[in-house]
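Researcher: Quick sanity check before group meeting.
Model: Go ahead. Protein one:
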Amino acid sequence: MPLRSYKEFLHRCFRCGYCKLPSGYTDFNCPSYNRYRRESYSPGGRLWLIRAVAEKAIEPSAHYADILYSCTMCGNCRAHCCLEFKDEILNMIRAARAELVNESILPRNVQKYLENIYSFNNPWKKSPKKRDDWATGTGIRRYGNKDRYLYYVGDVGSYHPRANAVSRAVGQLLLAAGVSFGILGPEEVSDGNEVLYMGETALFEYLRGKNTAIFQKKKVRNLITCSPHEYHIMKNHYPDLSDSTSIIYYLELMDIILSQGRIQLSERVPMKVTYHDSCFLGRWNGIYELPRKVLGQIPMVELVEMERNRDDAFCCGGGNGNLFTDMLGGDKNSPGRVRIREALSSGAEVIAVSCPVCLIMLEDAIEGEGVGDRIKVMDIAEIIQSAIRSTHLDQKNKYVRGIL
């Protein structure tokens, strides 16, 4: 909705500060406020600025744009605000960003991101022909009409070298379990999650339309994602898919596969693991226990919790395209580095993630903290893959009769 539609809500925030905190009030939980420690970078401060611009008390500026785009859309404010309009907080910020898009007042990196998505269908300006290079040598093939699942990989999983490893791990686990699936390769279109939350509504609608047309043309009934960002946007903002296509997070299948013993895991050297909740899987979609349940089925894993977990979890800092725009980096209080210190305090040696953006952000933060000899980050798919012993399945049937 346009910003004017939120006029009745904008004046109701009285900056009580709960939006900046977790439920235990132990530390600041808003990533941008924790990074800059200025009230304008808090959710309440942003709403006051947005109101001032809406009432023409101040003019929008480059600095105003920096403040708005420093929000990672982590959802902590929505989870902990005590007022009735809490579900509209991030919608108001998104609407204010849409006005900045219309007025071409954008941080340079945000503008570059949007331009690259529009022109190249990915943030890195890579060729569509390279979109499935990650799958070379894996046995993963293009989606066909006999496949039960479409594996949608997304921009990060397709092009970022670290995320490529996760895309391969998920695909190889599905192969080992006999799941009938395929990928789109060069036909795949960017999902548009970051585009929508950056306020570029028209571009998002274009991407959604292209994706929906492809899925409907190919009669996709089940779509697997390995990124919470893709899962969120397709499950909640692709209405034309809601009746025809099931959007499935890959851990849902991993839970079934492990529960049925389709992949057998061996006892290995014990691994002390702490799970980092992805904002778009957790606070946005309420999936907290599934990743922990899957980790609990891996014999070598001892799960310990960080102080802030589930709906109190601290953001990695990569949401809303910040993986690309880097609005919060360059300081010991950048979100990823804060989270690494918290993970170390848990006594874990591995941070388990279920999001390629979190994986990249936290690995960069480990390097920034200089603690690579003490802790590492692994996607849950990589942890499962490292524990595989054998499979009972006949590999020749993996594309003909999937178990799921």
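Researcher: Fine. The other one?
Model: Protein two, sequence then structure:
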Amino acid sequence: MDDTNELSDQTLPFWVTVSEDGDDDAMGMFGRSSEPALRAVPLGPLRKNLAETVDALQQLFADAEARGGTLPLAEAQLSFQVTASGGVQLIGTGQMQGTRGLTLVFKRPS
């Protein structure tokens, strides 16, 4: 059995928000207008969505590095949230106030 099939049946517990109408996939973790609840997030979709997000970010970082200049990109830190269905939502700086998320740190090897 390959890793993808194994992950499709596995879950990982995450605290996510649940809105008043019961939607636990709208805002990811700890939105402002809802209550946190522990949910079993499926690893298959989470792995796929996180891989797609990282691939896109790596391309953006490669484009930034190719520009060169006096301030080369040496490190990038990004915050993201995980939805109950395994979605990945990057958190912009305007959204970060009062929002908790996970942080990805991409560092250039020494």
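Researcher: One line on it for the slide.
Model: Helices lie at 3-9, 43-66.
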